[in-house]
Amino acid sequence: xxxxxxxxxxVLSGVCLFFFLERAAVRTLSAGSTTxxxxxxxxxxxxxxxxxxxxxxxxxQTMDGSFRGLVNSLDTGCSYFSADSTARxxxxxxxxxxxxxxxxxxxxxxxxxxxxxxxxxxxxKAGIEIGDSVAEISGLGTATMSLAEVNLYLSDAEAKPVDIxxxxxxRTLEFKLNRASLFSEAFAxxxxxxxxxxxxxxxxxPAVALQVKSKVAPSVRKQKRALILDLRNCAGGDFAxxxxxxxxxxxxxxxxxxxxxxxxxxxxxxxxAPVLDKxxxxxxxxxxxxxxxxxxxxxxxxxKRAKIVGLSTPGLVAREEYVPLExxxxxxxxxxxxxxxxxxKLWGQGVEPDALVDGASSGLDAYLKKTQDLLSTxx
Length: 379
Description:
Layout: H1 2-22, H2 31-52, H3 59-72, E1 79-81, H4 83-92, E2 102-105, E3 113-117, H5 122-125, E4 133-137, E5 140-141, H6 147-154, E6 162-168, E7 171-177, E8 187-190, E9 198-201, H7 206-215, H8 217-223, E10 227-230, H9 239-247, E11 252-259, E12 265-270, E13 281-285, H10 292-302, E14 307-310, E15 318-324, E16 330-339, E17 355-356, H11 364-378
Parallel strand pairs: 9-10, 10-13, 13-14, 14-17
Antiparallel strand pairs: 1-16, 2-3, 4-5, 4-6, 6-7, 8-9, 11-12, 11-16, 15-16
Helix pairs in contact: 1-2, 1-3, 7-9, 9-10
């Protein structure tokens, strides 16, 4: 147990050092002089809890709490998984998951908040509202969880219901939410009068870009009208999918880069010939446009390839590294944050719309009205 504890402390102290260095919080301090002191302090606090607290605590539980707070406080993308959460995480990887349709955001120490609802999902049908806070999932309190862990327990490989407790204003509401497969397709295209249609992306993946290229692009090119790319409530997918989706509309040696520790940069290209490079483009976003979808919107705006309509996105645009540990626990660490060619970091800032939609009335009609205003001005 002691060897495992020392190994964990070493890993996490390195993570903490990286985090603070990146934010210039300890620029005047040397890593060699501060890290041992911090480790000694953490060891001392844990020892006091185990030996002097009025109730005897399970050592593993005490350590889990310490590491959970240490890792989860780094940033929204980081997570410490207990042995149970690690087993759940590893068991879900690569499987098609059944989901509730809640899109959440979370600050450290607070309850996860509903920022989006997938249309026709169990959560939308149950009457859950944007702005609700999730206090419990299956009896587990969410305040100390990371966003990744919250999403981990909301989804499951089986279509079985999950009990959640919500906070809405001064009320506490309880729901038994079904889980379901949310998307038969990862995108949908609908013609819309006066436009080139609405292309809604649910989850950007390389396969989605290929399907859009073959099934949607030919008819859109013929219309020669502005295509609406709907990225609202798009909170999944992967960065390779975002890269391929951007490449449908523009080509460049670099569309941005992932900035890692120190001065390291990993450039993201979009080298193929674009099939919709001549098509005018409007992109819809909201507070539930998260991760890879933010890359798509941010890059298209940065290249002045599209106008953005909607609400500011949260800026959760980072590449994560999963690290299993020898005692059956694991950590999810932020390994790189996405930056536009202009140097703007999407991480923590998100994408600001060119035309802001009123959050109180941000339905389809409001988005269409703002889009029509933009297009008429452009004409």
